[in-house]
């Protein structure tokens, strides 16, 4: 683990344990080796480091392209952030994610795309289905609770709230499922809904 990543990992980890009294449920389900597509609901800016702290090795995640400015322009790449344009998503970001997974890395994706406004889990975009089908990676469903209360969308003020993360059993797609999912947008959409349903069930 590189020093700048380790520093962020340690700092956020300490905050989650002391300030937010982080509780991890289903830790035994974590896939800690090889290519893993981590799929989680999205509640807060806290979510990427929160999920990252579940693992003791580095992972990649998506971040809004607009965040890559000033000091963050250097820091975010050091934290393995992949820039994405939320207004005009392109294939370049998806290809980067798929490449990282094929190289054997762990990548965090939020199927909903944006943080929730009301705390409810939203619908998944077909992109997560495409990534899962093309990368053939193991899918790790994760559900976050309490992060919205700690730092809701549109707020810059941290609140003291209990955060919990539930880790679901990994999903390994069969050859038949991969073939069906790769049939086009409808196939990717069905796979995306399956992944979102797994998250919702946690």
Automatic annotation (TrEMBL):
Pathway: Lipid metabolism. Keywords: Acyltransferase, Transferase. It comes from the Bacteria. The keyword Transferase applies. The keyword Acyltransferase applies. CDD domains: LPLAT_AGPAT-like. One of its GO terms (biological process) is phosphatidic acid biosynthetic process. Residues 36-147 form the Phospholipid/glycerol acyltransferase domain. GO terms for molecular function: 1-acylglycerol-3-phosphate O-acyltransferase activity. InterPro entries: Plipid/glycerol_acylTrfase. This is 1-acyl-sn-glycerol-3-phosphate acyltransferase. It comes from Luteolibacter pohnpeiensis.
């Amino acid at each position: 683990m590189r020093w700048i990543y380790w520093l962020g990992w340690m700092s956020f980890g300490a905050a989650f344990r002391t300030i937010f009294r982080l509780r991890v449920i289903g830790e035994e389900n974590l896939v800690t080796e090889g290519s893993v597509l981590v799929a989680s609901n999205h509640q807060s800016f806290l979510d990427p480091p929160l999920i990252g702290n579940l693992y003791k090795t580095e992972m990649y995640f998506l971040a809004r392209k607009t965040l890559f400015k000033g000091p963050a322009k250097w820091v975010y790449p050091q934290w393995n952030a992949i820039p994405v344009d939320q207004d005009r998503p392109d294939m370049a970001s998806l290809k980067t994610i798929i490449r990282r997974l094929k190289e054997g890395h762990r990548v965090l994706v939020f199927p909903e795309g944006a943080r929730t406004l009301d705390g409810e889990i939203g619908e998944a975009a077909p992109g997560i289905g495409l990534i899962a089908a093309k990368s053939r990676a193991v899918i790790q469903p994760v559900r976050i609770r309490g992060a919205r209360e700690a730092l809701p969308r549109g707020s810059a003020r941290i609140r003291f709230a209990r955060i919990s993360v539930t880790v679901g059993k990994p999903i390994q797609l069969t050859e038949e499922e991969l073939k069906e999912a790769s049939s086009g947008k409808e196939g990717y959409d069905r796979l995306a809904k399956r992944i979102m349903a797994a998250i919702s069930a946690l």
